[in-house]
Specification:
CATH superfamily of the largest domain: Cupredoxins -  blue copper proteins
Structural class: mainly beta
Keywords: Apoplast, Copper, Glycoprotein, Lignin degradation, Metal-binding, Oxidoreductase, Repeat, Secreted, Signal
InterPro entries: Cu-oxidase-like_N, Cu-oxidase_2nd, Cu-oxidase_C, Cu-oxidase_fam, Cu_oxidase_CS, Cu_oxidase_Cu_BS, Cupredoxin, CuRO_1_LCC
Function: Lignin degradation and detoxification of lignin-derived products.
CATH architecture of the largest domain: Sandwich
Number of helices: 5
Radius of gyration: 23 Å
GO molecular function: copper ion binding; hydroquinone:oxygen oxidoreductase activity; oxidoreductase activity
Cofactor: Cu cation
CATH topology of the largest domain: Immunoglobulin-like
Bound molecules: CU-O-CU linkage
Largest sheet: 6 strands, mixed
Helix content: under 10%
Number of strands: 33
Strand content: 35-45%
Oligomer: single chain
Distance between the termini: 34 Å
């Protein structure tokens, strides 16, 4: 076990994409941001210094933060923001996890440009449960706007309409050659023939689930959200914002005289407009130097992959069902077999009354908003975790978050006409180590749309998923309690549901939200408060002395 130190200097940097230069918020001037590497069991000490004129926090997405909730990062949930000129040290141990995760800013929409990979290697001398790999390559998807981030957020927040579409999707920061004048801005993966590569896929896009594929190559999925899965082969991958998926890429045994297009483009089921363009990169084989001299002038053929249709919900459901835990002796799946606390949450869009003096563009002077169980979450002015830890919840939050929707209806059928959303800062309190079952039901109040739900502080087991309304009489008998996927983010299918289970074994305040940034901003978020256990090692220690103040 070792301690690894990183210095994260938050600074502005001019970056040129799509033939335009703009100043963006970066870590150490790099875009995408630096890679954080650790081995399972290591301690990470990451000193973040804010040198930009915005408040900042960093979240270590998917890191369980066992008894280190203070280092989790969501602004006003576990900490107050790091203000301009201030420093905060994120100090945590990576326990019981190995694989790919990522870090990103967790305040406003700063994660548009502030993100990077986290690579957690197995403990020394512990092999992967899949073939030896020749090389490992993080591939991180994002979105690029020509406008500055502030303009994009304000537009989404003030009108209650979808934000301006991004101008491009990106692969490792580059849009690729299908966008105007960006041939040079293309990510290239140079490979050798006959080798196995591990691609660490990360979806850091703000508002889009993505399909990913490489022309004429199949991929083998071996890990999702830093948990090994039963390997399966596929031509393309579906990855929602927040998720990470490791795939093996076996290169062809002889270097072909062709280049292969790497492509990512959206999976979208919603009523809103979306950017149906494609980010591209290139997979190129290195030729041996001998053949290189002769074939110099031969033009390479360019082969393109065929990705599923943008609204291929059947592929999406099938793909998600293929993801299964290894669930063997070395990597057992500790699925809760019984349930102490049951919750049924509707997730989706709705409407709320329009604030005074604002032009709202929803029906009858309303605005479009988003909610869990008809509650649109309001961010507090001080961090929930501080209020909880020091018993100062009064005026900050209440603990009456509803365990069920206000009333039952046909969630995926004709929209009822009285679905108004209320707002509040409400949390659910869970006793330490309770086993929790949570049904997430997508609603079609405004239109069916899938929502990638992300839970901080835990992995949950995806014990069931289906289309239409969840049926409490029939569906639970089909739950998979043997080898369900263990994840931190799951796409609740458009007009469908997922059932997840987890043990509340991590004391603190834990955010849960849709990882589509626009839906989070509109209120599709809530908080769980997990109480301390009785024993010393079941309690959350006090905050670090440099924890920022509000
Ligand atoms: Cu990756 Cu709360 O987020």
């Amino acid at each position: 076990k070792i301690t690894r130190h990183y210095n994260f200097n938050v600074q502005l940097q001019n970056v040129t994409r799509l033939c335009q230069t703009k100043s963006i918020v970066t870590i150490n001037g790099r875009f995408p941001g630096p890679r954080v590497i650790a081995r399972e069991g290591d301690r990470l000490v990451i000193k973040v210094t804010n040198n930009v004129p915005y408040n900042v926090t960093i979240h270590w997405h998917g890191v369980r933060q066992l008894r280190s909730a203070w280092a989790d990062g969501p602004a006003y949930v576990t900490q107050c923001p790091i203000q301009t000129g201030q420093t905060f040290v994120y100090n945590f141990t990576v326990t019981g996890q190995r694989g790919t995760l990522w870090w990103h800013a967790h305040i406003s929409w700063l994660r548009t440009t502030l993100y990077g990979p986290i690579v957690i290697l197995p403990k020394k001398h512990v092999p992967y449960p899949f073939p030896q790999t020749f090389k490992e390559v993080p591939i991180i998807f994002g979105e690029w706007w020509k406008a500055d981030t502030e303009t994009v957020i304000n537009q989404a927040m003030q009108t209650g309409l979808a934000p301006n579409l991004s101008n491009a999707y990106t692969i490792n920061g580059f849009p690729g050659f299908l966008y105007n004048g960006t041939t040079k801005d293309t990510f290239k993966l140079k490979v050798k023939a006959g080798k196995t590569y591990l691609l660490r896929l990360i979806n850091a896009a703000l508002n889009n689930e993505l399909f990913f594929g490489i022309a004429n190559h199949t991929l083998t999925v071996v890990e999702a959200d830093a948990v090994y899965v039963k390997p399966f082969r596929t031509n393309y991958v579906l990855i929602t914002p927040g998720q990470t998926i490791n795939v093996l890429l076996k290169t062809k045994s002889k270097a072909p005289n062709a280049a292969f297009v790497i492509a990512a483009r959206p999976y979208a089921t919603g009523p809103a407009a979306f950017d149906n363009t494609t980010a591209t990169g290139l997979l190129e084989y290195k030729k041996s130097s001998v053949s290189n001299t002769k074939t110099k002038n031969k033009k390479l053929r360019l082969l393109r992959p065929v990705l599923p249709k943008f609204n291929d919900t059947i592929f999406a459901m099938k793909f998600n069902k293929k993801v299964r835990s290894l669930a063997n002796a070395r990597f057992p799946a500790k699925v809760p077999k019984t349930v102490d606390k049951h919750f049924f949450f509707t997730v989706g869009l709705g409407i709320s009354s329009c604030p005074k003096n604002q032009a709202c563009q929803g029906p009858n002077n309303t605005r479009v908003t988003a909610a869990v169980n008809n509650v649109s979450f309001v961010m507090p002015n001080i961090a929930l975790l501080q209020a909880h830890f020091f018993n100062k919840s009064k005026g900050v939050y209440t603990t009456d978050f509803p365990a069920n929707p206000p009333f039952r209806f046909n969630y995926t059928g004709t929209p009822p006409n009285n679905i108004m959303i209320s707002s509040g800062t409400k949390a659910v309190v869970l006793p330490f180590n309770a086993s929790v079952e949570l049904i997430l039901q997508d609603t079609s109040i405004i239109g069916a749309e899938s929502h990638p739900l992300h839970l901080h502080g835990f992995n949950f087991f995806v014990v069931g998923q289906g289309n239409g309304n969840f049926d409490p009489k029939k569906d639970p008998s089909k739950f998979n309690l043997v080898d369900p996927a263990e994840r931190n983010t799951i796409g609740v299918p458009s007009g469908g549901w997922v059932a997840v289970r987890f043990f509340a074994d991590n004391p603190g305040v834990w955010f849960m939200h849709c990882h589509l940034e626009v839906h989070t901003s509109w209120g599709l978020k809530m908080a769980w408060i997990v109480q301390d256990g009785k024993l010393h090692h079941q309690k959350l220690p006090p905050p670090p002395s440099d924890l920022p103040k509000c």
